[in-house]
Amino acid sequence: MDTEALTGDSTTPRPRALATEAVHAGRDDLAGLGLHAVPIDLSTTYPSYDSRGEAERIDSFAATGARPDGPPVYGRLDNPTTARFETALARLEGTESAVSFATGMAALTAVLLVRASMGLRHVVAVRPLYGCSDHLLGAGLLGTEVTWTDPAGIAEAIRPDTGLVMVETPANPTLAEVDIQALAHSCGSVPLLVDSTFATPVLQRPVEDGARIVLHSATKYLGGHGDVMGGVVACDEEFAARLRQVRFATGGVLHPMAGYLLLRGLSTLPVRVRAASASAAELTRRLTADPRIARVHYPKIGGAMVSFEVYGDPHRVISAVRLITPAVSLGSVDTLIQHPASISHRIVDEGDRRAAGVGDRLLRMSVGLEDVEDLWADLCQALSDRPARTAAGNVPESRPAGR
Ligand SMILES: *Cc1c(COP(=O)(O)O)cnc(C)c1O
Known about the structure:
This protein is α/β, with parallel strands linked by helices.
């Protein structure tokens, strides 16, 4: 036990637990303001009778990228409501800072532009990634160049102009995991970006394992209700400053209303992720034992995503669900299912998609907060026309799918 805990030294307060931060971080000043709910500042501009003062604020932002003191001059530079969400997310991830964006893809774009603007245009990445991230890197839309490799090949793939190593863990949609600590080690001085959208800070805090940059599609679990798009990068303040400058110049800001909803989403994040994960683990157990299912993917760290491969036609499962919603995206309070080869990973070249383990019979399910028995009943009726593995273990590949 540390002596400060024994002496109760009030200058080093005990760190607050994640569940506590989730409902308090970014809101520490509210009681002093006489408020309980977070105020929403929709201002696009901020009046000032002191243009010399404004000039100084603009110069200081251009020089440092630090959040401006006082009013933010213009809504593309900063916003007090989205800043609360950033503060809270940084606290949950254990980073100095976080910078929010209009979507997850806008966040990844800003990270790539920061590095490319320093002449570091080469990216080393591990598949699978979210379909659009794969496309953004593979198509070189931002003037970057990518080398795809597996975790063991990272050190060898790094070049003098490598600005970033990017992985997703658990990965979308196969839920493949990488050892962040080992990977961070092979990156040397090149920043490692972990897309932690599937894990959330409830299950994984990549910076503690040596990653420098954590990316979230806030559209998913952080928002949690399928009604807000956003992206956020958690990192050290030095990188955050560059990100703010790129965000100011390129304009992919998070709307203040979205910032409000995302901050509200964070307050229930630990509860939602734990409850949905318990159901996902139970569904994983049942699907694994089910002879109609060829293979189940579920990460060691847990979580609310389950992917599985069926015998026969996967499209029939999508058309047969009734309680579960057949839709792309994930992380909402309700359960969603989709066929990655048709939707989320459609944009990835077919050969690359298959090589990354995204087969044509793979279905990806985002488990929500419904009762697990209701979810199981819906899955069972949707799978009822399935060919099944025989008791002898024979695989029914040649049998027709359903009627
Ligand atoms: C959805 C998603 C993204 C992209 O986020 P948007 O908010 O849709 O732009 C990036 N990474 C992962 C893992 C995702 O699931």
